[in-house]
Amino acid sequence: MNNKVNILFINNSIADIDFVKFELNKQGLEFYSETIDTIEKLRSLKYLSNWDIVLMNFHFLNSDIYEIINFIRQVDEFIPIIVISDKVGIDIVIKLIKEGANNFIFKKEIYRLNIEIQNEISQAIIKRENKNLTYSFVENHQKLLNQLTITNQLIDAIPNPIYFKNLEGKYIMCNTAFANIFGVAKNQIIGKTVYDFTQKIYADKYKKLDKEFLNNPEIITDEFEIEYANKSIHYVMFYKAPIYDTSKKLIGMVGHMLDISDKKKAENKLKANQKLLNQLFNNLPGMVYRCKNNKNWTMLFLSNGCKKLTGYNRKELLNDRIIAYADLIEPEYKEYVDTEVQNALNKKTQFQLVYPILNKKNEKVWIHEQGIGVFEHNKLKYLEGICTDITKQKNAELLLKKSEQKYSTLVNNLQEGMGIIDNNEVFTFANVSLENIFASKKNTLVGQSILSFLDDKGKKTVLSHAIRRKNGESSNYNLSITRHDNKKRIIRISVSPYFDLDGEVVGAICLAIDITAQRKVEADLRKRFKYEKLMFQISNQFIDSSNFADKLQSTLNELGKIINAKRIHIIYQKENELKLLSKWQSDDSLQQLNTSNKYTASDLDWFIEKIKNNELININTKDLPNKASVIKNIFIENEIDNYMAQPFSIGDNVLGVIGIVNVQNKDDWSTNDFILIRSLAELLGNVIQRKFSEDKISDLNNKLKVKNKELEEFVYTTSHDLRSPLINVLGFGEELTCSITEILNNINELKISNKGLSKIKNIMEQDIPVMLKYIKISMEKMDTMLKGLLTLSRTGRDEIILENINMNKMIESVIQSFNNEITKNNITIKTQKLPNCYSDNNLLYRVFSNLISNAIKYKHQTRDCHISISGKIVDNKVIYSFKDNGIGIPKSEIDKIFQIFYRINSQNSYGNGIGLAIVKKIIDKLEGKISVESEIDKSTTFYITLKNEKT
Hints:
The protein is α+β, with helices and mostly antiparallel strands. Strands 2-1-3-4-5 form a five-stranded parallel β-sheet, sandwiched between helices. It has a five-stranded antiparallel β-sheet with strand order 7-6-10-9-8, with helices on both faces. It has a five-stranded antiparallel β-sheet with strand order 12-11-15-14-13, with helices on both faces. Strand 9 and strand 10 form a beta hairpin. Helix 23 runs antiparallel to helix 24. The radius of gyration is 54 Å and the shape is flat.
């Protein structure tokens, strides 16, 4: 067996597959494998026979295992199937073998797998070869048996007569169609000659033709008449070919006849029709033609009418003999003719043309041509058509056109719009001024209904006046129309009945004047009054900032009524972030403009840049530039077609914008509108700035209270904690004084006893060193606390340098600084890929140094220390997680751990209670957040929230 095997794994586990591969590799087998897990994927395999063997895991399969085996057997009965399993009953093994599995191997006997695979593949090859040999023998034998029968049936099924003759002229074979010519059965023809079935006159003719053919045996074709048994005469197309044996010796001929009687009749009929058609063409008024599709329009056929039309006879025009037809067409019309014809040919449609030619006498003749391309097998053969003389009609049209031009010049010079409508309110005439009123392109208003420019109210108005018009009454009224450019206009229209020659009203003559500007001036005056009233109300309302939100909402409501807006909002801008300050009516899309939610500041650069530059934004959504693609998508999603935003500011400081949605097209805002809204925006800007200033003062006061409280706690804690080591120093100092006094007293005694000397020695060697040690410890503790206070004080004064920080690189640097302690204490630190942040690198370095230091100090005594650091981006913020498996923090103590000098157990030797206070102060200074989750004796997790990377 070949050492290379293709294995199809079905629903095997990864562990089993790896195990099988390992066993096969040990046996020196190379293999290609693929794994599938459903019968659907099995059915999708293009060739199952490409696989040498199938390995299936019984316990990884559901009840479809038998269905899978049956499917494989239907596709390929020889491919070996081996089922692998841990433990199954003998009944299941028997059922699997019955269903078509070749072998079953328990995993404990997997060492047999290589032998079983080779055995099963070898048996499959033998089975296939045996079956192929059997099939080949039977198939070849059957072919030999059927070949003659098939050939005879094939020849007999041919509807045309076929026969075979030997050199003596005797028939050795023929089909039924040939026997039917003579009205006999096929077996009555075999062994006989043509003299046995037809008259001698025809038989002699056929014999002579056969003799000529045998003298020169080449394939020939001929036409002649034959007489059928029913005495009918038929025209046939006769084909003869020689027959040779294997030694290339001529032994006879084969003949094939095709009845062409119908073809002969059709040819005769076609000749008659052609003659009739020529008579018809030559009597038509005009010129019938057939021509090539080339630059000369080379004529292939022409009727006699060409002489009257062009002055040239047929011979002069055919095949460009004297002149090409294209040379008769006036030069300025040649391109028009060619373009129209080619367009029609491309579409395979008729073409109709009107153009002038110059006849033989150099006279202008106007031609109406109608033609079509003739295609065969989708390929153009030629053009056919008819040309007629329309010179008289064309001259009459030109005269009428000159008359109409005088009338049109008069009407089109009117300043008022003038038009005619029929009884269906459709324009049948419109002058230039009327087309301008409706913003219609030239000659496009005719054929359109005036109702298509109106809303339901306008349609009712027109239809009510149409009733009056049909009664012969004239009328005047105003209409609000929506023009072709989607702009709204108000027109004053005068309508008079239009009568036909019988006195019937067939429509109306209309005069129209655009009075939009006049109405707008009136509306602007009313609007200005309302604006001034609103600004007066704002000045009075916002004297104090109480109920600020309600007052702001009331202002937007009033503004919405003035400009007839459905959506108005105020957006506040600070540090490249947008905040919805207030809105009127539904406009949820504005929440998407808040960069803390869905979009980054860079997505809104275009919008923010406009605001910062104090630019008026007045735009249609479709006209937004490519760099404002995010804004455009927000507008489209929320059906914002038009948007006007007026920035408001204090001095050079732009605070935000008043935004107005879908009130009118950007071109419909007037200068007065902008002036009034800018005045309102400036007033609101002052009000909002004053409110924010008051809020800021209030916020600063609250922060000051908090800081004062923190300072009180700091003073108390500091005085308390510093007092303790001082008391120790004082106490031990007093003890030391007494001890020295006692020494001196003993020394002053004249006689110093051994006991006295021993006491002095004890004091000097034991008591005094102990007291000095405690004094040193207390002073070192005081020194550490004072250094911590100094660090905390400096942290508050450090200058912040904000930048994009590569957190992965920074954390790596922090960890390296703890290498000795990490190695010494067998500490594991795992760091995921961290997102960057926008902060101060030095300050953050101190934060994470303190956290790692704390995790080492407060590690659990009975297990190795593990630290994990991760991060994620949420709503344009980055949250870092710092987790350790140390001693944990009681829930009751979590709120106190950031207080200065606070320790969970003041008696322990860990730290001095300043590290986390410094961490909290740094995070507050960076305008971030820090929080803690802890479970006693299990773990502690710090969460630090900072600004995301600046873009």
